[in-house]
Amino acid sequence: MQARSDLSRRQGRKIAFVPTMGFLHEGHLSLMKAGHKRADEVLVSIFVNPTQFAPGEDLEAYPRDFDRDCRLCEKEGVSVIFSPDVKELYPDGFQTYVTLEKLPHHLCGISRPTHFRGVATVVSKLFNIVKPHVAIFGEKDFQQLQVIRRMVKDMNFDIEIVGAPIVREADGLAMSSRNTYLKPEHRISALSLCNSLKKAKEMADAGISDAKTIIDATIKQISGYPETAIDYVAVCDPETLEDMKIIDRPAVMALAVKVGKTRLIDNMMLKT
Ligand code: AMP
After folding, report:
1. Is 189 a pocket residue for ligand 1 (Cβ < 6 Å)?
2. Could you tell me the pTM of the whole model?
3. Structural contact between residues 133 and 161, judged by C-beta atoms closer than 8 angstroms
4. Which residues are catalytic?
5. What structural domains does the chain harbor?
6. pLDDT of residue 75
7. For 197-226, what is each residue's pLDDT tens digit?
8. Between the CA of residue 123 and those of 128, 177, 225, what are the distances in Å?
9. Which residue(s) pair with 162 in the sheet?
10. Ligand 1 near 177 CB (within 6 A)
11. Other CB atoms within 10 Å distance of the CB of residue 237
12. What phi, psi does 147 have (nearest 5°)?
């Protein structure tokens, strides 16, 4: 992979990179499209990264369909799919991890304390292997995007990070490989995430600036649906991810909710 990227670079070709865990959907494809706009070729990685899953999470169950993913990448004009084995990225003796001091202590990082260490580590490794000029990440994983932006700044990676908007199903549900776990009867509960975010945005637009008032309304709305268990609902500073009490500057609402056994996340800017 490094030799392939060296060749592209020698030929003066700009490389865009889209890291994924596979089981591709329109959200992933939108990142590839964004890559084509910014570079001469788009490279995709498909790797279900074990270090970002904690014991008891869905590593083994995570949906996989490599052949279908290859067809979709081909259709999007992807020039290389990098899909290493776990042992290739984490050989015996592996012991170097990338950790951030503050960003992982908010939102998803509270219930998944080792998750962002796994993300930052694998993305650093992939950056060193794929050697892109630009890398595209979805705003769907808002905290992940901020972690990567911060890591790239802090570690002087010579890579431009681009955030791409959340792609949603027709009914508003944020696309996710994990949506495949949802049973039909869970759909209406799953939709409470995006519907409550829209409501929260309407409240902020109507001039309600007290974050707690909006958070309480959101919790009440989601809890009204069957089989929902809220992990968090937060209004925070989009850069530091620190909680905000008063929405008087840019603010994002982020939430994580278990619907049945499926953990879903979504977010929306309340004020830009
Ligand atoms: P994943 O395969 O879930 O690790 O996601 C790979 C990349 O796709 C990440 O940068 C995600 O933020 C992005 N992504 C996943 N779902 C969506 C979506 N619905 N809209 C936009 N980007 C997404």
Report:
1. no
2. 0.98
3. no
4. 28
5. 2-164 (3.40.50.620), 177-271 (3.30.1300.10)
6. 98
7. 999 999 999 999 999 999 999 999 999 999
8. 9, 19, 36
9. 136
10. yes
11. 15
12. -60, -45
